[in-house]
Amino acid sequence: MNVPPLPVNVLLDEAARDFGKTPAMAFLGRATTYRRLASAVDLFAGSLAELGVRRGDRVALVLPNCPQFVIAFFAALRLGAVVVPLDPQLGADGLRDRLGDCAPRVTLVVDDAYDTVVGAMARGASAGQLVVTTLVEGASFGVRVGLRIPLPRARRLRRLVGGRVLRGDEKVLFFDEILEGSPGSVQPASLDAERDLAVVLYTAGTTGRPRGAMLTHANIVAAACQAALWDPHIERGTEATLVATPMHTPYGLLMGLVGGVFAASTLILLPDDDPEFIARFARAWGPSTFPATPATYHRIVRWGHRSRARRALRTVRTSLSFGHVLSDGLAAELRKVTGVRGVEGYGLAETCGVALANPLNANARPGTAGVPLPGTEIKIVDDRDPTEIVPAGSAGELAIKGPQVCRGYWNRPSESVAAMRGGWLLTGDIAMMSPDGYITVIDRKSDMVVTGGHVVFPSEVEWAVRRHPGVVDCAAVGVPDGQAGEALAVSVVTDGSVTVTAEGIRQTCARYLPPYMLPRDVRLVTGLPRSRNGAVLRRVLRLAATPEQPQVGLPKRPAASATEE
């Protein structure tokens, strides 16, 4: 696959040139055309330049999905700066680690996360100049008026958009003010797309400290091309993309923002994946594509208004699901409830969010991550010796090579060397390849459990647990055991339809698994701790499943620590 090495901001320039009058963004009742978006980006680039942002500087975006994210993203890239998207729901410790690592020149932050950023700075992080914004700024006049109405629907929206008053702080700048006071557009930086970084995208931190994947302009443009080639029905300038997956995640950034602009699509921006708001704004705009995660699908099918969900999503043609495994049961329930056919794919921060996907036709194979996207090479290697390729049908570590693979990790040269071998990225995921090339991702390499000399994949135990009636979710982890090395502990979420007990779970597992795979500890929980992309935070579960904890009846959902989001 030959992709021209273009700066990412050229994608916006081309969309504005070819489809200037097409709505680029729809947010809380307000639409902005591509021509107006490009103009706002030019002006905000001038504002950032006036704040001292230069080529190679980092600009952190501690923002949910909103127009300010889109404007700041392309404005920073126009100057040759490096965008660092961060989750506004992170705690102060999580932001301290990331901001301290990337040392941004400017940090844009939504008002609800302002105190957390200040807390991160108090813990030693450098955030540079703070620029604060509110979600209300991007909403239409009608929505702003509606927020004052004392109705349940308005209360839900008020909780979503926040709206703190911080105008009295002289050290803080405000997005709307510096945009209006811009000195004017600036000359775009001259960039080498194959060498200049566009984004530092932090890994989810589900197994250790998050690392910043360094993505060049060429990486991101190539990934957008790969994703576009996968959907043969894309018609540039006519699409509408429902962007409910956070744009600070790999998949949300690529498939929601960059891929949407590449297709000159209307981005229906949602700062939260609450089914109420998905239905409301999807019905208004009629999305054709809906990139999502299994966690979002789960919220939709569990929502009590199935007919509204079906009507709102009736126009969706393509819905690729990334983040973690899309189970057969959830995919079937999604189609039954909404008519949407969710198709699983696979990607990482290190691959701009995309690497594998199922075909968008009858060749899709539920339960697998699909096949490589155009221009992507894969192999399954021995997890102890990456020079050895394992045969089809055998488990090993998934390795990926392609134009979307990152250059390494920010400030982590030794880890970059360990992960990148001759252009191949060692993903840390254990997978199997079928004889016809479909990939099934089994588990993280670091999540494998060694018990009594046997290697056990948590997904094997989870598969058996899900056979028990009433189980809707579960996760298995290894915990220290003096005799076997590690023992298996499983956390189980039920739907309340039948009585579920620890002994019943063990009996079900015994029907499918050998004795050494049976869980020693069974904990009934109300929910599993997950990162924003839906991945289970197994470190939190391991901590909760210590021998001092009771084996059954954990009454509360475990709280994820700030660095694990």
- Pairing-aware structural class of the strands and helices? alpha/beta
How is the main sheet built? 5 strands, parallel
CATH superfamily of the largest domain: ANL, N-terminal domain
Q: Give the second-level CATH assignment, the architecture of the largest domain.
A: 3-Layer(aba) Sandwich
Tell how many strands the DSSP assignment holds.
25
CATH topology of the largest domain: Rossmann fold
> Span from first to last CA?
35 Å
**What topology, given as strand order, has the largest sheet?**
4-3-5-6-7
CATH top level label of the largest domain: Alpha Beta
Radius of gyration: 23 Å
In the predicted model, the low-confidence regions spanning at least 5 consecutive residues are: 549-565
In round numbers, the mean pLDDT is 89
How much helical structure, as a percent, in the residues? 25-40%
Give the number of domains. 3
Condensed summary:
The protein is of the alpha/beta class and 565 residues long. The protein is 32% helix and 22% strand. The longest helix has 17 residues, at 34-50.
Explain the overall architecture.
This protein has 565 residues and is an alpha/beta fold. It folds into 3 domains: 9-357, ANL, N-terminal domain (Rossmann fold, 3-Layer(aba) Sandwich), CATH 3.40.50; 375-445, Luciferase, domain 3 (Roll); 448-564, GMP Synthetase, Chain A, domain 3 (2-Layer Sandwich), CATH 3.30.300.30. Helices cover 32% and strands 22% of the residues. The protein is built from 18 helices and 25 strands. The strands form 7 sheets. The chain has a 5-stranded parallel β-sheet, sandwiched between helices. Strands 16, 17, 18, 19 and 20 form a 5-stranded antiparallel β-sheet that branches. Helix 1 (9-18) packs antiparallel against helix 2 (34-50) and helix 2 crosses helix 3 (67-78). The radius of gyration is 23 Å and the shape is globular. The model is unreliable at 549-565 (pLDDT under 50).
